[in-house]
Amino acid sequence: MTETTADLVNATRESHDTKGERATLIQRVGIVGAGVMGRSIAEAVIYGGFEVVLYDVNLPFAKAQQELTLGQVAKRIEAGKAPGLSIEQVHLLVVDAIEDMADCNLIIEAVAEDLALKQSLFAKLEKHLASGAILATNTSSLSPNAIFNALSDPTRTIGLHFFNPATHMKLVEIVPTQTTSKETIEATFEFAKKIGKTAVQAQVSPGFIVNRVARPFYSGGWRLLDESSLTPSEIDRLMVQCGGFRMGPFELMDLIGHDVNLAVTNSVFEQLYFDARYRPSIRQRELVAAGHLGRKSGRGIYSYDDGGGAKREVATASSIPADSSNIEPSDEDRGHGFTFNGVIGEELAPLLKNSNLTLAFNHGPDSHLLDGTTITITDGRCANELEIVHGGKGAIVLDFYVDVDKTSAIAFARSKQVTDQQVEQVRSLLKSCGIELIEVDDVPGLVVARAISPIVNIACEIEGAKIASAADIDIAMRLGVNYPLGPFEFASKIGASKILDLMLRLSHFYGDSYFSPSIHLRRLAAS
C-alpha cells in the first residue's frame, strides 16, 4: 500500500469520533454487509462525496474490505479518475455494532438474500436511527413490502437495487413499497443522481425490471441448447455478432455466477406462481451442484485460466470459427465475376446495401433463387414448413438482425430441397457485404429472433401492468445488462407486428406458454 493510501486509511479510522447533529439532507450513508456488493456500493457512494459507515457481523473481514476499498479509491484519485474528490474528503469508517450507525441519514442493506435475516436487521436498525433516516434494501429478488412490513414507520423504507459492480454500473432500480412516502422517493432519486447513477422506478414485483425482463435471455439459451446441435459458444457468438449483444447468455451467466443466476431465476419462478416462462434449467442446476459456477470457480459453461480471464469451451470445440467479425470480402466476392440469379425481397435490402451488385426488389418479404427457392427473414416457421407452403420448392430462412452496420454474422437454416450450390450463392452474396452466413439446425425462430421476442413480450407485460414505464424499461435493460437496445427499441426497430407473428407461430409450434404473446404485445402490434 502506498504512503498516500495508508494515510487515507488512518485518517478515516480516526475521523468521526463524536456524533454530530443529524443533517436534514443525506450526508452520511451506512452500508450493512461488506461482501462484494456492499463493498462495491460503499466505493460508489464515496465517489459521490458522501461519508460512509460500513458494518458487517465479521469485523476483521469488514476492516480488510475497508483497506481494500480505500486503496482502490486512492488509486483512482491519484490517477485523476475521481474528479472533484480529494483524499482529504474521503471518509470510510468501520463500526462493530449496529447502534454505531445511529447518525447515518441513509442505510443501504447488502446482506444475503434471506428474508428473515433482512427483516431482523431492519428491526434492529429502526431502534437506533433518527426518524428522518431512510432505510433501503439492495435486494434483487425479495419483496421490499415483505422486508419492511413489521417496521413501525414503513414510510421511510425503499428498495434501492444496485448492479454489480456498483462502481461501474450506472443503473439503480428504485422500488417504493406500498407505504413509501413521496419525500423518501424524491430523496432517494436525488441521492442516486449525486453518486452518478441513472435511476429508474419500478413497482414491487418479482425481479423488478431487469431481473424479470432478462430471464428469457438466459432460459432461451438453455432451451436452444436442448433443442439443437449448437454449442454454447456458437449461440454466444451469434447473439454478439448478429444480435449486437455485448455477451451471449452463457458467457454472461459464467460472469454473473451460475449460483447467483439460478437463485434469482428460482426466486422469480416461485414468486410468479411457477409461471412456465420462468422455469429454471436442469442443466444449470447440475452445474451449480457440481460447483461449476463460472469465472469465480474457474469453470462453468467454459473453463477459465487461474485469473478468470481467457475462456475455452469445455469438452468440445465450437464448429463455428472463433471470429469472423473482421471478414474482408475480396473483389470477386464484391460482385466481380459473381452473378446473383433472382429477385431480392425488400426486407433483405439493408443487408445488401454494401454490395456492388445491381439488385431488383419485389414488394414481398421473399425473394426467389434459381428454381424458385425462397430466402426470407424468419417469421417463426421452420424452413421445411415454408418449403411445403411454397409447393415443395426450397426455402432458406435467415435470423433477425438488429443493426446491419454491426452485423458480421447471421444464422440461417435450409429446407431439404435446398442444394449446396444455392447455399453458396446466398453465402457469397452476403459475404460481398461483409456478413458471414452460418448454418444452424432448422429450429423455429433460429437464434436471435427467438431470444429477443420473449424479452419484448415480458417487457410489454410489465409495462402494461404499470410495474414500470416503457422508457424506464428500455433504460434499465441498456444500462443494467448492457443490451444494445431496450425491449421497446427492439420492437420499434424490428416491428412489433413481426415479433407478434413470430411469437404466435412459436407458441403454436411448441404448444406451451413460453412463447405465448401477452395482450400488451398484441396491443403494441395493433397500434
Task: Describe the overall structure.
The strands form three sheets. An eight-stranded mixed sheet has the order 3-2-1-4-5-6-7-8, with helices on both faces. The termini are far apart. It has 19 helices and 17 strands. 49% of the residues are buried. Helix 2 (36-47) crosses helix 3, helix 15 (448-464) crosses helix 19 and helix 18 packs antiparallel against helix 19 (519-526). The radius of gyration is 26 Å and the shape is elongated. With 527 residues, the protein is an alpha/beta fold. It has three domains: 3-204, Rossmann fold, CATH 3.40.50; 207-321 and 448-505 and 514-527, N-(1-d-carboxylethyl)-l-norvaline Dehydrogenase, domain 2; 342-439, 2-Layer Sandwich (Transcription Regulator spoIIAA), CATH 3.30.750.190.
Spatial arrangement of strands, main beta sheet = 3-2-1-4-5-6-7-8
Distance between the termini: 61 Å
CATH architecture title of the largest domain: 3-Layer(aba) Sandwich
| % residues in beta strands | 5-15%
Number of strands: 17
Q: What proportion of the residues is helical, as a percent range?
A: 40-55%
Overall pLDDT metric: 86
pLDDT < 50 stretches: 1-6, 11-24, 315-344, 357-368
Shape: elongated
**Biggest beta-sheet profile:** 8 strands, mixed
CATH homologous superfamily classification of the largest domain: NAD(P)-binding Rossmann-like Domain
Count of runs of 4 or more consecutive helical residues: 19
Number of discrete domains: 3
Task: Examine the coordinates and then state which fold CATH places here, giving the name of the CATH topology of the largest domain.
Answer: Rossmann fold
Instruction: Indicate the structural class.
Output: alpha/beta
- Radius of gyration, in angstroms, nearest whole number: 26 Å
